[in-house]
Amino acid sequence: MKTPPLADLTLPTAKMLLSAAMASCAAAAGWTIVTLLGPWDSTTTLVGLIGIGIVAFVSVIGTLAMRPWHPRTIVAWGGVLVAASVSRAVVAIGGCLLLYFAARQPAEPLLLGAVAGLIPVLICETRLAARQFRREDS
Fold it and tell me: On the chain, which terminus has fewer CB atoms closer than 10 Å, C or N?
């Protein structure tokens, strides 16, 4: 029996928080390995890690702000997840730009690190939500 699209469901809060943290850790490890093996200096490695750290912080706060433990319909979750993803990207990039202007950090590794951190977080969040929606649909 299929669940009607207006049935309320929650998202797995602990898994979402853990996936945001672990995706950021994986991005940080990847960033570190690539920048240490490539022709970049240690400043590039550090500044990129700062960008990934900003993304990790914004991702955890953003996940808590969307309250995944609060029951909503699948249709409502679609809007919430899109708004959370866009907000996460805007706030993280904005935080990196603020750090660039305030502390005069190099812009390229800061923004590239942020993007390298955002992509795995968004992929993990989308996969968790889709898995939960499929589970509720069967």
Answer: N
